[in-house]
Amino acid sequence: MSLTHKKIILGVTGGIAAYKAAELCRLLVKAGAEVRVVMTAAAQQFVAPLTFQALSGQPVLTSLWDAASGDGMEHIHLSRAADLLLVAPASADFLAKLAHGRADDLLSTLCLARTCPLAVAPAMNREMWAAAATRRNLEQLAADDVTVLGPAAGEQACGEIGLGRMLEAGEIAAAVTGVLAAGPLAGKRIVITAGPTFEAIDPVRGLTNRSSGKMGYAVAQAAAEAGGEVILVSGPTCLTPPAGVRRIEVESAAEMRAAVLAVLPGDVFIAVAAVADYRVDAAATQKIKKSTEPLTLQFIANPDILAEVAAMPDAPFCVGFAAETERLAEYAEAKRLWKKLPLLVGNLAQDTLGQDAAELVLFDAQGQHPLPRADKLTQARHLVRHLSTLLN
Known about the structure:
Elements: E1 7-12, H1 18-30, E2 34-39, H2 49-56, H3 74-80, E3 84-90, H4 92-100, H5 106-113, E4 118-122, H6 126-130, H7 132-143, E5 147-148, E6 152-155, E7 161-165, H8 169-180, E8 189-194, E9 198-202, E10 205-208, H9 214-225, E11 229-234, E12 246-249, H10 253-263, E13 268-271, E14 278-280, E15 299-301, H11 305-310, E16 317-324, H12 328-338, E17 343-348, E18 357-364, E19 367-375, H13 376-391
Parallel strand pairs: 1-2, 1-3, 3-4, 4-5, 8-11, 8-13, 11-12, 13-16, 16-17
Antiparallel strand pairs: 6-7, 9-10, 14-15, 17-18, 18-19
């Protein structure tokens, strides 16, 4: 990770996660960035400005009335030379300020007067994150082209568990690299499916596939690192979405199809999800009671999302995945040709499902490109580099 010569304004708002901002500042400086820290009054209740001054090597700004610029216009001057304004942690209160254009302290005024991109790393209690007002504010920020990094799920300082934790400093620093880098997917809209689907039999039972979602989430992270605008349509998993990635949660194949079509058009569609091929024709509305008699279920085919997207008149660059248990090369290439895909990723399911590493083969018009066994994020980065070459 290199941020050499990048100028980053790090805004710190009030919250226990402010302690993570100190480590974030250190990592950004270590990566070569020039960091100027701006703190709100509430942030100073958690971490002293002297900490950030020592880590950044720069004076910390805390008030609209700081005279660092000599003309009282620091809120104007700062962003003019900056490559990025990053607010971490961004409290629920500060997100509301941004969404409504309030400017009542140095940091909020700086955000309103900025000429550089703005990214925020939210941190708050899970109920505050789920509140309708916060959701509306986030929708407005997305419409205003503000990049939202996280949050993550886990145990919170209040003792509750859920979404709202600020991403770890290393995750945010990696995301910043992707935001600032003119990567091979910069300016591209990337739609990715991941995880399994779940097809209801009755209210308590269903059909699913053995998929952890790890490969799809790794591809989403690699695409974001390459500068893409990534939308991840995910079936049920226990995974946290990568920094800077927008996740849409679905359950069934029909829901996944609807979500994919809703976010298209795009530049690239990567179908990593293990979509159930079949669903019950008529799922029971009440629990099917156990019996000693045989149970017969009528199955019908689910929509083939990848084939449908690839057949669109304005189809994006489509990448498929084929998890086989035998004759990988034969079946994977046949699938690529049948669906008319420029690129397909093949693997043997028994060597990959649920594991952190994978051995993959890329199939395209030029032939086969084996990727020796490695962790899934490494493989995802290889895949993104290869598809970027084909795409460009």
